[in-house]
Amino acid sequence: MVLLTTEPLQPQQAVNAVMTDADGAYVQFVGVVRDHSKGRSVTGLEYQVYAPMAIAQMQKLVAEVKTRWGLACAILHRYGFIPVGEVAVVVCIASSHRAEAFEACRWAIDTLKHDVPIWKKEFCPDGTFWIEGEEAIGAV
């Protein structure tokens, strides 16, 4: 399952998409907008996305989890403005056992953040900043 939306995310939707009666566990990463970053107060984030490519790459990640680990994977990502405290991204992996689910979930979220064309802008009292890796770049 892949979902890219401007609507609030429901993490349970990802669980429902991957769990079967054969699974004994699921590992879920839920990324939530926090109120600070790099020493600044944050009031929200804006994610911008190139949707056709992002969806295709998210689908490739889901397929790669299936190929490498034999596990079901769901990836949900929200874009547009997201206030502090709301969910921005969900990755969920179902498995018979926990070890491979933890490994696959970590790989999926790390690869998503690195490879998928989704860009993050932080809104702070002293301005807006695009985030490139660990660097904050002032927005114009």
Shape: elongated
Helix content: 25-40%
Cross-sheet strand order for the largest sheet? 7-5-9-10-11
Poorly predicted sequence stretches spanning 5 or more consecutive residues:
none
Report what the structure shows.
The chain is α+β, with helices and mostly antiparallel strands and 140 residues long. The chain has 3 helices and 11 strands, in the order E-H-E-E-E-E-H-E-E-E-H-E-E-E. The strands form 3 sheets. The chain has a 5-stranded antiparallel sheet with strand order 7-5-9-10-11, with no helix packed on it. It has a 4-stranded mixed sheet with strand order 1-6-8-2, sandwiched between helices. Helix 2 (51-69) runs antiparallel to helix 3. The longest helix has 19 residues, at 51-69.
A few lines on this structure:
The protein is an alpha+beta fold and 140 residues long. It is 32% helix and 42% strand.
Q: What attributes does this structure have?
A:
single chain; 140 residues; alpha+beta; 5-stranded antiparallel sheet; 4-stranded mixed sheet; elongated
